[in-house]
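Retro notes - structure team

What went well: the batch runner handled both jobs without manual restarts.
What didn't: labels got mixed up in the shared folder, which is why I'm recording both outputs here explicitly, each with its sequence directly above its tokens.

Job 1
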Amino acid sequence: MGYPTKVQLISRKKTADQYYINFPRAIAMAMNFSKSDPVEWEIADKDTLILKSIPVLSFHAIPTFAALLCDIAIMLYAKRYV
């Protein structure tokens, strides 16, 4: 089932024009989107745009500098006493 929509143009005096495409809530829910989720447009051909969700690392998945130092210390300690 398709969901027809229109391309909207926002004209501004001091900055470049912007185009907007809105999609229904049903699509957002089906795609499990949340507010401010990053997405990426891909041009497949002249008549086809593909909207891709960009995976985001959680805050806890990104190691901190202190955690990296602890890992290095553990590795050095293990090498010394093995």
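Job 2
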Amino acid sequence: MNSYLLVPLRLLRLLLDLATDLLFGAWLSGSHRPPPPVSDVLLLDSATALADKIRTGRVSSRQAVEVYVKRAKEVNPVLNCYVDTRRDFFASLKALV
């Protein structure tokens, strides 16, 4: 592309980016809510640390799943996403064991 066309196109892109940032920023500014604070320290562990805790028996896999399902329910109103927590999961798990 010719270099004399790049300057106006970059300027146009900059103006469009600025306009969309202002438009969506104003539109979404009233609806922003921070997620609730973390209620369990298990949520702060990395996947490797959590796997190590499960492997060594310091945390059960059931306990880990319950903590994460609880957190998904806590942040769902803020994120406004579909969460299926499978309420019957633990009941069906007990039936298998």
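One thing worth noting from job 2: The chain has two domains: 1-32, 34-97.
We'll revisit the folder naming next retro.
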